[in-house]
Specification:
Distance between the termini: 13 Å
Strand order of the largest sheet: 2-1-3-4-5-6
CATH architecture of the largest domain: 3-Layer(aba) Sandwich
Helix content: 25-40%
CATH class of the largest domain: Alpha Beta
CATH superfamily of the largest domain: Alpha/Beta hydrolase fold, catalytic domain
Order of helices and strands: EEHEHEHHHHEHEH
Number of helices: 8
Shape: globular
Number of strands: 6
Number of domains: 2
Strand content: 5-15%
Largest sheet: 6 strands, parallel
Length: about 290
C-alpha cells in the first residue's frame, strides 16, 4: 500500500480530500495532514509561521508513516509551499524520501504571488467567491441567486474593509442584510453562514500572512530530490500558469507540469481529471519496483 499525504490549501480542511477515495487506485491509501485551527483540528490554536506549520506537518506525517512505507506528498495552494518546507524536514531527518511530490495551484516557494494579500487585488475576487460558495449548504438559501448575492456582497465588504483598514475584520449581519433588525429570526440560518464565512476569512488572512512573511524573508531554497508533478488550472486567476511553472526552479529531478481545465479549485472541481494522473504514476512505480 502506497500512502498519499495531502496538505490542504489556505483556510481549508484536509477533509476536502475525502471524496478522492472513490477515484484513487486501490493500492493508494489517502492520509490527511490537517493544519491546526481548522477541520479535524479546529479547536486547536492556529499557527503563525511557516516553520511552525512545517514542523507540525512533519510530526503528523511521522505518526502515520512506518519506516519502509512508500509514500507521496501533495500540497494545494498554501499547502504546496508548506509541503516544500515539510520536504526540507524529511530531507534533513534522513528519513526515506517520498518517491513523488505533487504541488497544485500554487506559486513556488521563491515566487511572489503571495507577497501581497488577495484582498488587495480585485481581479482575484471572483475566484474567492467561487471558493466560498462551496462552503455553504444550499439549504441555507432559497435558491442559487440568493446564494450568489450573499457571497458577492460578502466578499465586496471584505475587500472594502481591507482597503480601508489594511486587515480582515468580521462582517456584521447589519452590513450584509439591510433589514436585519426587523427580521432577525428570518436571517438566523444565514447568520450561521456569515459566522462561518468570517471564520474562514480569518483563517485565510492568517495563512496569507504566513506565506507573505515566508516569501518576503531570506530563505535557503533547495532542490527537491524526488520526482515532482505540478497541477495547474488553465483558468486559474489566483495563481497564473506562468507562476506555477516556477516550481521547476526547485525541482532537482523529474519535473512534470499537468495543465488541467479549470480554475483555482481544480483539486475540488476537477479532481476526477487529476487523480488518474496520480494513479498512473503509482502503477508505473509499482511495475518498476
Amino acid at each position: 500500500m502506497i500512502k498519499l499525504f495531502c496538505i490542504p490549501g489556505g483556510a481549508a480542511s484536509a477533509t476536502a480530500y475525502l471524496p478522492w477515495t472513490k477515484v484513487l487506485d486501490r493500492s493508494i491509501r489517502l492520509c490527511l495532514l490537517e493544519v491546526p485551527g481548522r477541520g479535524l483540528r479546529r479547536n486547536e490554536k492556529s499557527l503563525e509561521t511557516m516553520d511552525a506549520v512545517a514542523d507540525d506537518l512533519f510530526e503528523n506525517l511521522k505518526s502515520q508513516l512506518k519506516e519502509d512505507d512508500d509514500y507521496m506528498i501533495l500540497g494545494y495552494c498554501f499547502g504546496a509551499v508548506a509541503g516544500y518546507e515539510l520536504y526540507r524536514r524529511i530531507l534533513s531527518s534522513g528519513m526515506k524520501l517520498p518517491f513523488r511530490v505533487f504541488f497544485c495551484a500554487s506559486d513556488p516557494p521563491d515566487g511572489n504571488t503571495y507577497k501581497t494579500s488577495i484582498f488587495t487585488d480585485r481581479n482575484r475576487e471572483e475566484e474567492l467567491q467561487e471558493t466560498l460558495k462551496r462552503y455553504f449548504h444550499p439549504a441555507l438559501f432559497r435558491n442559487n441567486e440568493e446564494l450568489n448575492d450573499f457571497v458577492c456582497k460578502y466578499t465586496s465588504l471584505c475587500y472594502r474593509n481591507y482597503e480601508a483598514l489594511g486587515k480582515v475584520i468580521p462582517v456584521e449581519p447589519t452590513e450584509l442584510f439591510e433589514d436585519y433588525e426587523e427580521h432577525k429570526e428570518e436571517y438566523y440560518d444565514r447568520c450561521k453562514a456569515l459566522e462561518f464565512a468570517n471564520h474562514t476569512m480569518d483563517l485565510l488572512d492568517i495563512d496569507q500572512k504566513i506565506v507573505q512573511h515566508y516569501q518576503n524573508g531570506d530563505n535557503d531554497y533547495f532542490k527537491i530530490k524526488s520526482d515532482v508533478t505540478v497541477f495547474a488550472g488553465n483558468r486559474d486567476t489566483m495563481t497564473t500558469l506562468d507562476a506555477v511553472k516556477g516550481w521547476e526552479r526547485v525541482a532537482g529531478g523529474v519535473f512534470d507540469l499537468e495543465v488541467i481545465d479549470g480554475g483555482h479549485l481544480i483539486l475540488i472541481d476537477g479532481y476526477q481529471n487529476c487523480l488518474p494522473i496520480i494513479n498512473e504514476i503509482v502503477q508505473k512505480y509499482e511495475k518498476a519496483g
